[in-house]
Amino acid sequence: MAAQEIDVGMDQWRCAKGNTVLSTGGLLTCIRVAIVGEYPTGYDGYDRFLVHISESPPGKAAAADLYNAVVNAMNDHDFEITEATLVVPDPRSEDDEAFTGWVYETIDYFNQLADGEIEVEAHDTNEYWELGINSEKEIFYGAE
C-alpha cells in the first residue's frame, strides 16, 4: 500500500504515524523542523512531527504548537526523540539583524526540546529546499 503523503504548508505543523510521509518545500527564508521518535511504552501515538515556520506571528504560533505537542507526548506517553533536524536559512546570507536573531532564537528553542541533540542544516537564502519524513521515520532534506 502506498504511503499517505501530507504536505505541510507555510506556518503549519502536522504530526503522523504509520505509513505516512510528511513533507514541505519551497523553502527559502523559512525555518523547518522535523522530529521523529518512539514510545518505549508501546503507546501507538504520533511518532513524527514537521513544521514550516515563517518569521510572522502565525509561524511562531505553529512552532509553539508543534513544540507543545511533542512535550505533551513526552509527558503523557514517554515519547523519546530519536532524531531532530532543523533546516534554516544561513543567517550569514542576510544582512538583517532581526532575521539573524530569529534564526538563532529558533535553533536554541528547539535545541532545548531535543536536549541539544539536534542537527542544524543551513542553506543559502537563494536556494529552494525541501524537508520531509518518510514512512520509515527517516528525515530527508536538500535542494529542490
Looking at the structure, the CATH topology is 60s Ribosomal Protein L30, Chain: A
Q: Rough shape?
A: globular
Low-confidence stretches: none
Total helical elements:
2
Supply the CATH class: Alpha Beta
- Strand runs, count: 9
The average pLDDT score comes to 94
Class per helix and strand makeup: alpha+beta
Percent of sequence in beta strands: 35-45%
In the sheet with the most strands, the strands line up as 2-5-4-6-7
Gap from first CA to last CA: 26 Å
Q: Helices and strands, in N-to-C order?
A: EEEEEHEHEEE
The CATH architecture comes to: 2-Layer Sandwich
**Whole-angstrom Rg:** 15 Å
What does the largest sheet look like? 5 strands, mixed
What is the number of domains?
A: 1
Helical content stands at: 25-40%
In a few lines, what is going on in this structure?
With 144 residues, the chain is an alpha+beta fold.
Overview of this structure, please?
- The chain is α+β, with helices and mostly antiparallel strands and 144 residues long.
- It has one domain: 60s Ribosomal Protein L30, Chain: A.
- It is built from two helices and nine strands, in the order βββββαβαβββ.
- The chain has helices spanning 57-77, 97-113; strands spanning 4-7, 12-16, 20-27, 31-38, 48-53, 80-89, 119-123, 129-133, 139-143.
- The strands form two sheets. The protein has a five-stranded mixed sheet, with helices on one face. Strands 1-3-8-9 form a four-stranded mixed sheet, with no helix packed on it.
- β6 (80-89), α2 (97-113) and β7 (119-123) form a beta-alpha-beta unit.
- The model has no long low-confidence stretch (mean pLDDT 94).
